[in-house]
Amino acid sequence: MVCLFAGIGLLGLAASAGSAVQPRTNEDGTAIAGKDEGTPDQQFAMPVEGDTDWPSYNRQLDGNRFSELAEIDTENAGKLTEVCRVRMGGAGPFNSGPVLVNGGLYYTTSRGTVAVNPQNCDVIWKSLYSPEEEEVFVHNRGVAYTDGMVIRGTGDARMVAYDARTGRELWREKIGNPEIGEYVSAAPIAWDGKVYIGLAGGDWGIPGRMLALDSKTGKTVWTFNLIPHPGEYGNDTWPGETWKKGGGGTWSSYTLDPEKGELFIPVANPAPDLNPWVRKGDNLYTNSVLVLDAKTGKRLWHYQTRPNDNHDYGVTPPALLIRNGKGRPVVIQGSKDGYVYAIDRNSHKLLYRTPVTTILNHDADPTAEGLKACPGMTGGVEYNGPAYDPARRIATFGAVDWCSILFFEDPPKYEAGQIYMGGSFKQDGLGSGWITALNVDSGTVKWKHHAPAPVVAGLTSTAGGVTFAGDLAGTLFVFQTEDGKLLHSIETGGAIAGGIITYRSGGRQYLAVPSGNISRSTWPQAAPGTPSVIIYALGDDAAAATTDSQQKNVAASADNATRKADAARGHATYAATCAGCHGAQGEGLVGPALKNMGSKYSEEAMIAFLLKPTAPMPPVYPGLLNKQELVDVAAYTRTIK
User: Is residue 409 within 8 Å of residue 274, measured between CB atoms?
Assistant: First the structure.
């Protein structure tokens, strides 16, 4: 299942043109007050001895979200104070895992790519991607950095490279077909002159595939079919021609062993999600951690956690590579099925399987009447891997504790570009979350913390003995890694769904937290903040004046409905804030279908409903949409056929 926690979002950032730095602007195009931005090199943080980078999605290619920094420790973690924050755009998804290289902090929103000063939140540059085709889903996990470029994917299945110092676009390449549901949401990784990325869209019935691109040109170096085609190993696990729409997307990020040149790919669920009978068989390589030769794309081995998946329990987060206490190489892999797996990399045998959330009816099939299953469709270990403390040999996972009622449909209906689920689901109550620390050698639970909201954010552990985590209620947690003692918590004001990272810049340790992910379609009580980057450090620093000015100016333009209703603008807003619940084309997901609303509601009636919606639909105004956006969405919704 596509990770609906991602939501879908608008972008409030202006595009950069050429290599020139553009003035900061609000969503309506007016200039943001504050100092002149000057040249990019004047705005990047100046490094000093001992400063650190966070150069890849999980910091290290082996998936090890660990920092050797110890300025923030178990004794002083309670003194963390907000230094600054910068608003990244309008309401929408913000589940980006940032990278930090050479004094620049790089984030993505649905269409924007942004460079931020990691000490004071100044926006250095921002580039806005304009889609060339209809987007499928427009959430995005982040960039890869290589050779002075930052590279990302798009909702219409493109890869785009930007100059890391200026934001100038260097190349773009189409790698998939959005007309059948292919798009890119994963954060790519880069190594050996290549960028590694896979296609998302398994729930649309795409035949998934993984690609290596030349980092300088974007041209394809090799392709591997995640759903085996005729003549390829594993095609016999798909009856008839079910492989053609078998799913197997990948939508988080990847892990790589540079020494052995092995690429580890988390492969998600098969399609149709909830009707396993039409594709009876193991359905390779869905629900697997798949290992390829990173240079050639040749299959080396795989471990499948759940053949013929019937619950949408794909393997989604990046793996963690370690050596156990006996020196043997091990891959540790979380899954949406609610378990953490440890697999011996030499024998490919399972060492242990540990549950990290509620398990109920794990193997039972969906029924026409409805089966309660835990984890549910949006449960288990979602798209972020664990934090790992190598000295304490502890890996800490975030998970979602949320059950679903699963209904199957027979026969399943396939239409290109539409969700191909083979059934439906509804959430069971409200979800919560778990933060669980495991001994990596034995798989035993060291400690666990029950969070009031789902935990999908990327965790980070440090040599200071602390582990940082966050939940969708917007709480930033600081734990003592050894025993799980809660040292500090901070209410950030917005749902935390992206990567929490720490770094030293200018000789000081900072913590960067993405706050304000909008995903009410999957967690109705999520904190209602706006996508923002918040930077913390020890002490009592006030936010920079330029950041205050930027915040006020963005907010000032938010509620002016002075233009006529525009269905085209409304389409973009709908994709940004409504599609996660009602479907990209109004076909219905968690929320009802919106077909033919124009024959049922006048424009005035639609606006009135959106101003005061009835339960279970959550309020969208004034927190989620401003008045202009609401009017535009009403106009677009009435055009859906």
Answer: yes
Residues 6 or more apart in contact with residue 542 via CB below 8 angstroms: none
Total domains in the chain come to: 2
Residues 539 and 474 in one domain: yes
Which tokens in the block code for residue 477? 């947690």
CA distance 519 to 487: 28
Q: Which two tokens stand for residue 21?
A: 């730095």
pLDDT digits (tens, 9 = 90+) for 496-546: 999 999 999 999 999 999 998 876 545 666 666 788 999 999 996 443 333
Q: Which residues have CB under 8 Å from 359's CB, separation 6+?
A: 338, 339, 374, 375
3-state secondary structure of 44: coil
pLDDT at 22 over 60: no
For residue 137 the two structure tokens come to 């889903």
Do residues 496 and 608 share a domain? Answer: no
Instruction: Reduce the DSSP state of residue 245 to 3 states and report it.
Output: helix
The predicted structure's pLDDT at residue 15: 28
Q: Are residues 214 and 270 in the same domain?
A: yes
Q: Could you tell me if 531 and 614 lie in one domain?
A: no
* pLDDT at residue 42, as a whole number: 64
The reply to whether 561 falls in a domain is: no
Task: Provide the CATH number for the domain around residue 598.
Answer: 1.10.760.10
Q: Is 372 left (phi over 0), alpha (psi -120 to 50) or beta?
A: beta
Question: Which DSSP state fits 499?
Answer: B
Other Cβ atoms within 10 Å of 280 Cβ, number:
12
| Pair 9, 519: CB distance under 8 Å | no
- Amino acid, res. 274: L
AA letter at 121: C
Structural domain span for residue 256: 56-556
Q: How far apart are CA 286 and CA 246, in angstroms?
A: 9
Kindly tell me the sign of the dihedral angle through the C-alpha atoms of 237, 239, 241, 246.
negative
Secondary structure class of 434 (helix, strand, coil): strand
CA 51 to chain centre: 27
Beta-bridge mates of residue 223: 211
Place of tokens 């209809």: 134
Residues 492 and 582 in one domain: no
Q: Does a structural domain hold residue 10?
A: no
Backbone angles phi, psi at 631, to 5 degrees: -60, -40
Q: Are residues 521 and 608 in the same domain?
A: no
Domain boundary among 537, 556, 575: 556
In a domain, 374, yes or no: yes
What is the average pLDDT across 577-581?
69
Q: What is the pLDDT of residues 150-181, one digit of tens each?
A: 999 999 999 999 999 999 999 999 999 999 99
Q: Are residues 237 and 325 in the same domain?
A: yes
**DSSP structure class, residue 77:** G
Domain end residue (candidates: 556, 579, 597): 556
pLDDT value, residue 71: 98
Q: What is the pLDDT of residues 446-497, one digit of tens each?
A: 999 999 999 999 999 999 999 999 999 999 999 999 999 999 999 999 999 9
Quick check: is 61 in a domain? yes
CA neighbours within 13 Å on the CB side: how many for 616? 15
394 and 291 both lie in a single domain? yes
Computed from CA positions of residues 204, 473, 375, 448, in that sequence, does the dihedral angle turn out positive or negative? Answer: positive
Q: State the virtual CA torsion across 398, 399, 400, 406 in degrees, nearest 10.
A: 160
